[in-house]
Amino acid sequence: MVRHLETTVAAFPIAGAFTISRGSKTEARVVTCIISANGSTGMGECVPYGRYGETIENVTAAIEAIAPRIAAGMDRAALQREMPAGAARNAVDCALWDLEAKLSGQTVASRLSETLPAPLTTAYTISLAEPEAMAAQTRSVAHRALLKIKVGTEDDESRLRAVRAAAPDSAIIADANEGWTEENLQRHLQIAARERIGLIEQPLPAGKDGLLARIPRPVAICADESVHHTRDLAALRDRYDAVNIKLDKTGGLTEALLMRDEARRLGFQIMVGCMVGTSLAMAPAVLLAQGADFVDLDGPLLLARDREPGLAYSDSLVFPPEAALWG
């Protein structure tokens, strides 16, 4: 069976702007890997992330460089060995999963579990802004069960207080994106505890997070930028309570499933997150997130337009993908 690989690049406008401690963007630029064989087509989407040295150009080039091996029959196990973790491998890996499902007539969901996948409660993200603006964003979505607020400034006390006041009944995650420091960490954690924040993502820079092992943690701390591979997990047990598994970091669903299982074995809580992308990127993550403690798969909700067909969202729920989308 000969397989043909191609890539496409597309930009999806964000509704407004998406702002974190490292900056803002107004569109999601995504790379799609398309693998065809025997009249069937599998697709996978990735979002190159500059924080990890990724660009649209080098990710596209990496995918296209593996095309001859894919055409010759490379499987997902060989892909893990020959391509490094990251966005490029994610797109190829997910396209292979999708193609396997199309060729076999067996859905990815049925291969992963005997139980049908269920709708999941997903977080909805509030971009970093001045406290009053974040409160206004929050009031418009305060009916949602789970909110995720972007923080990561020198003084986030007013932001945490403003968002909690605007959504007194919602569960809240705060994501600092490496923006806090050793000097302000404990003060921010104490404020977060008082404001009933349920989880703090990556408060300190990756590689400079040793302090987390030496101080009380009144709020559970989740590794994001600090964890990419299954082999990273063991060294993080003294400083993190949870890990955020993203397909664009692990390099696809194949590795992400291994990471999820090992993280559970080591006693971590599981969060499944995303970059800002379309429903095609979220679809495999919804299957990965079955049974997760925290789900953050709101990427399509932040876009002005999504792919068609897309995932179904209703209030706080995201529903498993239909085969016409992926898997």
TrEMBL record:
Q: Where are the bilayer-spanning segments?
A: 266-289
Q: Where is the Mandelate racemase/muconate lactonizing enzyme C-terminal domain?
A: 131-222
Q: Where does Mg(2+) bind?
A: D175, E201, D224
Q: Which domain of life is it from?
A: Bacteria
InterPro entries per the record? DgoD-like, Dipeptide_epimerase, Enolase-like_C_sf, Enolase-like_N, Enolase_C-like, Mandelate_racemase_C, Mandelate_racemase_N_dom
What's in the keyword line of the UniProt record?
Isomerase, Magnesium, Membrane, Metal-binding, Transmembrane, Transmembrane helix
Q: Which Gene3D superfamilies match?
A: Enolase-like C-terminal domain (3.20.20.120), Enolase-like, N-terminal domain (3.30.390.10)
E.C. number(s) listed in UniProt: 5.1.1.-
The organism named in the record is Metarhizobium album
GO function term, MF aspect, one: metal ion binding
Q: What is this protein called?
A: Dipeptide epimerase
Quote the PANTHER family the UniProt record gives.
D-GALACTONATE DEHYDRATASE-RELATED, ENOLASE SUPERFAMILY MEMBER DDB_G0284701
Per the record, the similarity remark reads:
Belongs to the mandelate racemase/muconate lactonizing enzyme family.
- Report if keyword DNA repair is assigned: no
Q: Which cofactor does it need?
A: Mg(2+)
Active-site residues, as the UniProt record annotates them: K150 (proton acceptor), K246 (proton acceptor)
Task: Establish whether keyword Membrane is in the entry.
Answer: yes
Q: Any note on cofactor binding?
A: Binds 1 Mg(2+) ion per subunit.
Task: Provide the top EC class.
Answer: isomerase
